Amino acid sequence: MRLVNRQPQGFADSGDYAPKLAERQRSARRWQGIFLVATMVGIVFLVALLYTIINQAFGYVAQENTVDPATLVSAGVPLEELPKEQLIQILRDHVSAGVMRRFESEQPFELRSREDVYSLVVERVVAPRIVATWNLDASLLRRAAIQHNVAIEYPDARLVFRAWLMPDFLMRSQSSTPADAGVRTALLGSLWMLAVIILVAFPVGVGAAIYLEEYAGKSLVNSIIQTNISNLAGVPSIIYGMLGLAVFVRALEPLTSGALFGLVDPATANGRTILSAGLTLALLVLPLLIINAQEAIRAVPASLRQASYGLGATKWQTVWYHVLPSALPGILTGTILAMSRAVGETAPLVVVGASTFVALDPQGPFSKFTTLPIQIYQWTSRPQDQFRHIAAAAIIVLLALLLALNASAIWLRNRYSRRLD
Amino acid sequence: MPNHAIEITSGPRLLDATQGVARTSLGRRRRPAEGLIQGFLFVCGAISILTTVGIVFVLGKESLLFFASPEVDLARFFTGTTWQPAIGQFGILPLINATLMTSMMAMVVAIPLGLCVAVYLSEYASPRARGILKPILEVLAGVPTVVYGYFALSAMTPLLRSILGPNTVDIYNTASAGIVMGILILPLVSSMSEDALSAVPRSLREAAYGLGATKLETALKVVLPAALSGIAAALIVAISRAVGETMIVAIAAGAGPNLTLNPFKAAETMTGHIVRISGGDLSYDSIDYNSIFAIGLMLFLITLGLNVLSRQIVRRFREVYD
Questions:
Q1: Do B14 and B96 share a structural domain?
Q2: Do both B220 and B300 map to the same domain?
Q3: How far is CA A340 from CA A288, B82, B115, B180, B237, in A?
Q4: Is residue B229 part of a domain?
Q5: Burial class (CB within 10 angstroms; exposed 0-12, middle 13-18, buried 19+) of B198
Q6: How close B127 gets to chain A, by Cα (Å)?
Q7: Which candidate, B248, B253, B104, B117, places its Cα nearest to that of B173?
Q8: SS3 state of residue A101
Q9: Which residue from A52, A232, A350 is facing B154, i.e. has the nearest CB?
Q10: Residue A127, Ramachandran bin (φ over 0: left; ψ between -120 and 50: alpha; else beta)
Q11: Which residue, of A345, B61, B83, B257, has the fewest CB within 10 Å?
C-alpha cells in the first residue's frame, strides 16, 4: 500500500501529470495532519476535563475566626495548651445550655478526651469561616500575590492550603456549610441503589438474553422483543425517569414506600425511595445488559451445546451447566459496565425525586435517597465558589468509583477466562 | 434449535429398552420444571415489551390529561412562542428551539471531529496507535454527563466569556452546553463511523491504489462513500442522543424558556425544563405535572423517530460486499 504513494518513475516527467501529483500528495499529507489533530482534540478535551476538576478540588483558602482565640484565654497560655476543665468552661460560656446538654448526652464530658473538647471549642467557639478560595493553579503559581491580597482584604484571615477532597470528606454527611459537607450519605445512597439494580436487573437481563438466544425461535413475538430492546436502548434516560415517577413513585407507592411491609417511615411515605430509584435505573440498564449478555451467549460455540445434548442433557441442563459458565465472564463484564452507566445517571433520579437534603444515612430500600451525581448536580447549581470546590471533590470520588467498577470488570473477566481454559 | 428436542427425549428411552423394562412409552417425557423455566425466561424477555408499553401508556395518558385541560390548546401548543405555565401559556417552540440549538451546536463539533477521528483510526493509524487512542476516546464516552455539565459551567463558559467578552456571553448559554455536548457525542460518532469504514472490504482500497490514488483520495472518494449508510446512521443516532441529553443543558444552558437564536444567551431545552420542574415539589395532577409528560412525549417521539430512521437507512442503503 505504501508503494503507490511514491511517484511512479515512468511518469515523473510527463507534462500534465507530474505537477498535479505533487499537489495531490501535498494535500494527502496535509489531511493526514488534520485527521491526527482531530484525534488529539478528543484527548486534549479529556485532559482539560480532568485538569478542571483537579484544579478546583485543591487550593488555598482564607479562613477567618469568628472569635479570636487570643480573647478566650487570659493568662498568656495559648488555647491549644489549656487544660480540659478550662476548655469546658470556655465552651459553657459561649454556647447555649441546650447545646451543652446535647453534647453531654452524646458523650458525657467526663469521658471525653482533652483533644475532643478542644476540637469542640475550635468548631463551636472559634468557628473558622472560609472567606475566600483559590484554585490549585493560582495557589501554585501566584502564591505571593494571593498572600498579598489576603493581607490587604482580609487582615484577620489566615491562608491555609486546603484539599477539598480528603478522607474526612467521604465520612461526613450532608451539610449546608460547604466546608463541613461530605458525600457519606450520597455514597451510601449510590451503593444501596446499586444493590437494588443488581438484584433486579441481573437475573431479568440474563434471563431475557438466554430466552432470546437459546429458546426463541423466529416467531413474530420474538423479533418484536429483539427490535424493541434495541429501540429501548436509544430512549433518553430522562424518559425512564418519567416512567419511574408515574409507575414506581405514584402507582406502586404502597410497595415502594414500604407501606405494604409495614415499614413506613413518615418522611418517605411518598414513594420517592431508594427502591423506586433502583427499579427505574434497573429498567434503564436492562436493554444494555441484555444486549451484552446476548453477545456473550452467542460467542459460546455450538459444539458445546451439541455435546451436552448428545449426552442426554435437557435444554435447561445444557444452558445452566454448559452455556452459562462459558458465557459468564462476558455477562459479568457487561453487567458491570451497565452498573457503571447506572452509577453515573442523574436525570432520571432527579425526575423520580431524589431528595435535595439528606443528613441521615439511608437505612434500607425504603429510605429517602440522594446519590453522588445528584449531590454533584446540586452543588454545581449553587452560585457560591465553595460549592464548586466540593462538587469537584465529589466528582473525583464518583470517577474513582467508576474506575474501580471498570477495573473490577476487567479483573473478573481475566480471572474467569483463565479458569475456563 | 428444534432438532435437538428429539435427542433429548430419546436418551432415557434407549436406556429403558436395554434394561428390558416393558413400559417404553413413545410419548415425549414431560418435564414440568423445564416448561416453568422457559416460562420464566419468556417473562424476562417480555419485561422489555412491558417497559415500552409502560412508557407509551404513561406519556400518552398524562399528555392526554394535559391536552384535555381547558387552559391548553393543541394548536397553540405547537405554534405558541411562550412557555409560561404560571400564566397559562403553553407554547413548546422556545423549548424545541433551545433543544435544536444545543443539538446543532453539538453536531457542529462532533461531526467534523468524529469523522476525522474515524478516518484516522480506520485508514491511517497503526494497530498500536489504535490500541492506545481508542480506549482513551472510550473514556470520554464513559464520563457521567453531570461531570460534563460541571465542565461546561466551570471551564467552557469562562473560556467563551474570556474570548468573546462577558457582555456577549451570558453565564448560562446554549453555546457552551452545545460544545461540551459535542465532546460527549464525539466518541459515539467516531466509533460507529469507524465500524462502518472498517467494514469496507480491502479489495476496494487496493483497487483505488492500483489506479494510482493517494491514501487521502482512497479514503475520501472510495472508502467513505462505500461506508456512507453506516456513517449516516451513526450521525442520526448521535443527533438523537444530543436531543435527549439532559444534565449538560440542565446545568449550563440556563433556566427559563427563552425563544432566541443567539447561542450566547440562556435558554431552556425540553429536557432541561423537565428536570427543573420535576426537581421541585411537584404535586400530582397539576398542570405542571401533566405538562412535563407532554414534553416527554414529544421528546420520545423525536428520538424514537430518529432511531428508527437510522436503522432504516442501514437496512435499505447498506452496500453488501462479498
A1: no
A2: yes
A3: 11, 39, 27, 21, 22
A4: yes
A5: middle
A6: 15
A7: B253
A8: helix
A9: A52
A10: left
A11: B61
User: Roughly how many angstroms between the first and final C-alpha of chain B, as a whole number?
Assistant: 27
**Residues of chain A with C-beta less than 8 angstroms from the C-beta of B11:** 311-312
CA dist A353 to A52, A280, B55, B245, Å? 29, 11, 18, 19
- Are B174 and B273 within one domain? yes
Distance of CA B209 to CAs A1, A44, B215, B218, B219, Å?
7, 33, 8, 7, 10
The amino acid at B232: A
ipTM, interface predicted TM-score of the complex: 0.86
User: Rounded CA gap, A22 and A13, in Å?
Assistant: 12
Q: Which CATH superfamily is domain A184-420 in?
A: MetI-like (1.10.3720.10)
The tens digit of pLDDT for each residue in B7-36 reads 444 444 444 444 544 555 656 677 888 889
Instruction: Give the start-end residues of each E strand in A134-263.
Output: 158-163
Taking the Cβ of residue A49 and every Cβ of chain B, the question of whether any pair is shorter than 8 Å is answered with yes
pLDDT digit string, tens, across residues A64-78: 887 777 777 766 677
B273 neighbors B292 (Cβ within 8 angstroms): yes
Under 8 Å CB-to-CB from A60, ≥6 apart: which residues?
Answer: A133, A134, A138, A139, A143, A146, A159, A160, A161, A162
Whether B137 and chain A come into contact, CB under 8 Å, resolves to: yes
Domain enclosing residue B23, as ranges:
1-30
Closest in B34, B121, B246 to A315, CB measured: B34
- Domain count for chain B: 2
Percent helix, percent strand, percent coil in chain B, to nearest 5: 75, 0, 25
Helix axes B270-279, A237-244, angle to 10 degrees: 30
Q: Where is A333: in which H helix or E strand?
A: helix A324-344
C-alpha cell at B71: 387552559
In a domain, B163, yes or no: yes
Residue B95 shares a structural domain with residue B156: yes
Domains of chain A by residue range: 3-48, 56-165, 184-420
What pTM was estimated for this model as a whole? 0.85
Region of B231 on the Ramachandran plot (φ > 0 left; ψ -120 to 50 alpha; else beta)? alpha
Q: Rounded CA gap, A7 and A25, in Å?
A: 9
pLDDT in tens, B130-162: 888 888 888 888 899 999 999 999 999 999 999
Helices (H), A107-157: 114-121, 136-141, 143-153
Residues of A (82-111) whose Cβ lies below 8 Å from B: none
According to the model, what pLDDT value does residue A122 have?
77
The span from the CA of A298 to the CA of A226, in Å, is 14
Whether B185 and B265 share a structural domain: yes
- Chain B interface includes A371 (CB < 8 A): no
Q: Fill in the amino acid letter for A376.
A: I
Here the CATH number for the domain that contains residue B240 is 1.10.3720.10
Of B146, B214, B308, the CB nearest to A5: B214
Residue B47 host element (H or E): helix B32-68
